[in-house]
Amino acid sequence: MSRRAAALYRQASYSPNQHRTNDTAILDATVGHLERLGWEVTRGGEDAVIHGALPDADLVLNMCQGPAASERLLALECAGTTRLVNRPSSVLGCHRHRLVERLAAAAAEDTAVTFPRTMIASTGVDASLDGFGRDDALVWVKRGDVHAERQEDVVAVRREGLEAALGAFAARGIARVALQEHVSGPVLKFYGVADGRFFRYYGADGGPAAPPPVVNEERLRAVAFGAARRLGLDVFGGDVAVPEPGRPVLIDLNDWPSFAPFRDEAARHIADYVHETTIFTGSNT
Q1: 103-113+184-255: which CATH topology?
Q2: Percent of the chain, pLDDT > 90?
Q3: Which residue, 36, 136, 139, 211, has most beta carbons within 10 Å?
Q4: Treating both helix axes as pointing N-terminal to C-terminal, what angle do 18-36 and 263-277 enclose, rounded to 10 degrees?
Q5: Smallest Cα–Cα separation from 198: which of 267, 275, 112?
Q6: Rounded CA separation 128/89 (Å)
């Protein structure tokens, strides 16, 4: 009896510009490796999940990111008969208004996870900034629901520019944002698989071909994997700022990024991971 998987591709609005091609490519590559391991794989997308039947499979490779599809997939997660990578509850937890709360709690409970002061604020006229940010300090303003869909979804402003920034988000129909204090130092982008078999990083400014900024890799792994465990993510990526080599600070975490600089290697490891860790009962026919 063959193992059956369903690959669910991300809705285009959550994969803007080049991300759309890269997000499709990593899932295509993972599917290819799974098929070589003997899996039968069907393909679908977020719209199919929202408007159609839920996948009938032993394994779901889940890149859906919108709330409608994720909430529909929760029924499969609750039933417990299908493996979902990533689980929809974890994907919903990465929506920024929830992510801020969970990462702040993780930082409070786990000294390995460092996270800067961040708060969720309304973009309405009655927005309370709670004294956030000094006049001369940079504040990052990030849309507060899903991840960034376009460049203006993440901006850096001084304290005096916060009101105008909130107004710009409100004008686009975005009701809440995350305000995050700026952390000095170079930024690293990282990618990982839950059991540690794959972990790569590079400097955001220099790119994957350049030597990365100096960082204590053990501390970096502790931050990245500690945060991923808190969210229950199997396949993840994110960003850290490095004010000091021994103190990487998490500034963002994402469910199933594109892995573009390491796509072929990452796809093989993701496929091997789900193949080796998915319990196959043979109950699906």
Answers
A1: D-amino Acid Aminotransferase; Chain A, domain 1 (3.30.470)
A2: 75
A3: 139
A4: 50
A5: 267
A6: 29
